[in-house]
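Quick one: structure for this chain?
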Amino acid sequence: MIKIQEYSGHIRNWEALCRELKIGSSLSREEREQAILVKAYEAWGADMANHMHGMFAFALWDDEEKKLFCLRDQFGTKPFYYYETADGKLLYGTSVRKLMEQPGFVKELNEEMLQLYLTFTYPAGENTFFRGMKKLMPGHYLTWQRRELRIHRYWAPEFHPDESKSLDEWADEIHTTLQEIMTEVKSADETAQSFLSGGVDSSYVLAMSDVKMADSCGYEEERFDESKLAQQTADILGRKFFRRVITPEEYFATVPYVMYNMEQPLGDASAIVFAIGCKAAADHTKICYSGEGADEFFGGYNMYRNAERYGENLKTFYVGNTNIMKEDEKKRILKKYDPDVLPIELAERIYEETEGLDPLSKMSDVDIQIWLEGDIYLNVDKMSTAAGLEIRMPLTDTRIFDIASRMPSKYKVNEEQNKVAFRTAAAKVLPEEIAFRKKLGFIVPIRIWMADDRYNQDVREKFHSEMAEKFFNVDEINAIFDDYIGGNSDNWRKIWTIYTFLVWYEEYFVKR
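Got it. Here's what it folds into:
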């Protein structure tokens, strides 16, 4: 008998799986997805995830074999953690706090992660900020049998460029595949809304959906406010539009909530905005679409246009989308610095896997395996869960990635544009000025707010605190802060990364 011990997610192709596995279609969603997991495991065993599309992490107990089987989806959209206790038990689940509450867990800070965090700004790799607790990585499953833990990899991103197709043919394939996926993203009895920024990804998802309402966040500072562009898109597509204006006071007041519910520190300033957006959306919907995945798959970041120039040098420095502090600076500000804990080591295996590929494919693979899992999907899962909102990401799908994996890089970026083929596909349902709009990013006015003494008092206090003294040479971090206040706005990310760690540490090691 197979028992479901833990499950988080949404199985997109449930209708096809129910037919194939002979599961009744009259079941509730919860009953249906549980039945799919059990029957898929019985039919395909460890290969089951390669038959499933969607977002999922789960643990199954095989009573006959006396074996635990835990699996995380190909991209890591849902988290999964595990911890071996001193007396030989395995704790596991989709929530850090659930593990912490179980007998045998010993709460200790893994200080090595702080050193990595100052570069990445998120918990990168399989280790966590809690000593002994690990993440099951994307595309992996674990088995626990007779007190023996084994980790296996069942899927990895692979790139096999196909030069036989034209730009229009690639765009057609993206479009028809997304059409198919959109029929699966929700059931007929479900209603949803869609997050909308000024960018092409969320605009394309909205245009391809049947949702009637788009949700966006904005600011009073117009130069940072994408919501006006989002509203134009919603108007063109004939959808209602909800805009949530975020003030600096609300933004800073939300930081402890975010760090507590994130369960590990995250130095992505947009996470605070996303958390507020999730809470606002949850007031009037239970399901919301979001556009994550396309940037990493199809060459969406402006830095990808430099890929050819970086060439073979990539493997000496490129560790993903963020690289905030270099080793010399970390050595200067940290009380404990270990020269053997280097960010580039997390990417070494990926560069080995991509040997012989073009530079853009290498950059994309690093971001898919490190940045997407460690930052983007962590943020989406934890902030939506905290708000009681379910987010579904149509563009994060192995069928979409399959197209990207075969597409030559010349159809992803060129000298003038990024995401060329993807934008060409989006132009089938969007005006060209939206489909080919320059990428703005999820901009937050934090770089100006944090320099304002009306809002930065908690930052100042934490930078001078006994808590900061545990980890940092406070004179050094305050010199960085003073330089930022003095006009060096490039320092804002460094300040924010240190600050978010201190807020998180206070939530998990001082208050509790």
